[in-house]
Amino acid sequence: MGRHQFSLRIEDNLAVLLATRLNAMNSIKNVARLGLGLALIYAGIGHFTFSRVEFRAQVPTWLPLDADFVVLASGLVEIVLGVSLIVLYRYKKLVGLATALFFVAIFPGNISQYVNGVDAFGLNTDSARFIRLLFQPLLVIWALWSTNAFDYFRAKKR
Q1: What is the 8-class DSSP label of residue 118?
Q2: Which of 31, 33, 60, 157 is the most buried (most CB within 10 A)?
Q3: How confident is the model at residue 24 (pLDDT cuts 50, 70, 90)?
Q4: CA triplet 69, 53, 82: central angle to 5 degrees?
Q5: Domain boundary assignment for the chain
Q6: pLDDT at residue 26, rounded to an integer
Q7: What is the mean pLDDT of residues 125-151?
Q8: Taking the model in full, what pTM does it have?
């Protein structure tokens, strides 16, 4: 075996290894995207059924809309986003961005729950409600990462 052939084999092996790693990462992202979609569908159904009262408790009192309307509308949005994350693979980046923006839009409800000391979803202490606030940025990151929506921000820098 010549030196040139040995070099090509190393390069080929590295290419295969890189492709395998990329496929594994894409598989993890797909599972994360599908999991987020299912979680949103479940939460959205909860807005209409078993968690409706608790979701009403999170609607900020300063919001000039009927709390029940906000709960139902946000539940519908969650279901649509969840289904979109699962079935609209071709548009996953756009759906991921929309999902992240939704998580930002509902964050005032979490802040209101903390500031006003509202008990809901088992969050019955200030520390529990505060810790819940820390998870909202993780949901935003989850939506952007699992759909490759971070690419929108990377493309702008170039």
Answers
A1: -
A2: 33
A3: confident
A4: 65
A5: 32-157
A6: 87
A7: 95
A8: 0.84
Structure tokens at 13: 């092996």
Residue 18 above 70 pLDDT? no
Alpha carbon separation from 9 to 4, 12, 14, 21 (Å, rounded): 9, 5, 8, 18
> Which residues lie closer than 8 Å to 104 by C-beta, 6 or more apart?
140
pLDDT band for 88, please (50, 70, 90 cuts).
very high
CA distance to 52, 71, 117, 131, 135, per residue, from 111 (Å) = 19, 16, 10, 11, 12
If DSSP states are collapsed to H, E and C, what string results for the chain? Answer: CCHHHHHHHHHHHHHHHHHHHHHHHHHHHHHHHHHHHHHHHHHHHHHHCCCHHHHHHHCCCCCCCCHHHHHHHHHHHHHHHHHHHHHCHHHHHHHHHHHHHHHHHCHHHHHHHHHCCCCECCECCHHHHHHHHHHHHHHHHHHHHHCCCHHHHHHHHC
| Residue 50 φ then ψ, to 5° | -70, -15
Strand partners, 123: 120
